[in-house]
Amino acid sequence: MHKIYDYPKSRAAFERALKLIPSGIYGHQGPAEGCYVPVEAFPLYSSKAQGSYLWDLDGNRFIDYMCAYGPNILGYHDPDVDEAAARQRAISDCTTLPNPIMIDFADLLVDTVASADWAFFAKNGNDVTTLAIMTARAYTHRKKIVFFKGYYHGVSPWTQKIDYAGVIEEDVMHNLYVEWNNLEQLREVFDTHKGEIAAVIAQPYMHGNFMDNELPAEGFWKEVRKLCTDEGTVLVVDDVRAGFRLDLAGSDHFFGFKADLICFCKALANGYNVSALCGQEFLKNTVSSMSYTGSYWMSAVPFAAGIACIEKMKRIDCPRLLDEKGRLLREGLTDAAREQGFDLHVTGAPSLFYLRVADDPSLRLHQEWVAECVKRGVFFTNHHNHFINASLSDEDIRETVEIAREAFAVLRERHPL
Ligand SMILES: Cc1ncc(COP(=O)(O)O)c(C=O)c1O
Fold it and tell me: Which of 29, 239, 240 most suits a substitution to test ligand 1, by most atoms within 8 Å of the C-beta?
């Protein structure tokens, strides 16, 4: 039996934060957004991280399946990435003129990503999804953008919904929404708005929250690509979350098509702060013509980290490794569920798996199971996909499955058949 964690120091820190920071911890890393339900089961602050582990303020160790919500792909504090970053930090980081390591990083990305003829760097995923939309509008001289329901492309007003605080009608009045994998709806939208659609923006597969994740149906991407080409619409792939976990050449390459613009962030530099918009040659001049930059966007340390990260991902064939680990974990977790008569649905790519205890539309059973896992040292969250990192060992997977089994047993005792 595993020790049951509690979190007095996390709670005390959160009480302090509430007085000083709006909502204490904002966004999905805070307790307000639904990933951490019931909130008592979760720590709220970490004290350190290494490899596949995270420690909270109370000294509890977790096998971390959120990976900082994606950036941790090689393992926290990967020695090769940290060493490259430290070497660059000793030379220069944020300076008046950029360091040419920026060109080396662009060169490596163009060499690595199949649809990339150039690379533009920023800091967050939202910076580059926004640049992609502005680029599409500038190039096409059109206003409308097609989204797939369940999307997440960041926090700029154009990504939000009309009923969200601070959003005005004009921010979202040119947004059009269709269902994932629904080509009929997409064709209808193109027919209704002929000559008006600047861009289709999509994640490479549907990894939305609060829903089983859904891979593209056979032929889906080929047809989306064709529609965009025929209609002169820019096809934007938002690879901020899935990037490098499916295919180092880009998730569009993985699914057999070519994006016009592709957005990267999270796994690009193993936690160092950089994002990139890559794209095809015909859009390069448009991006050049735009007014778009930021105080830290040319900092050199994250470029050094990014180069080391991509080179290492290539060396270890990272996507294959993550896929294998993800499959092993999926098998262990579904077996553990079955032993106690539960049906655990594991959807999406094995390296970015989404979990749901089925046959309970209230989702409470699922939340209870996740809570019992977290309190024993496996950091899952509710209603969001999870992430595998390359440092996750077979022993970590074995321990995870053992804890999952114990958590299912607790659930079964509480909810007898
Ligand atoms: C698919 C996707 N797009 C865009 C973003 C926004 O990235 P950021 O939070 O770095 O601005 C995220 C972040 O989770 C994401 O998952």
Answer: 240
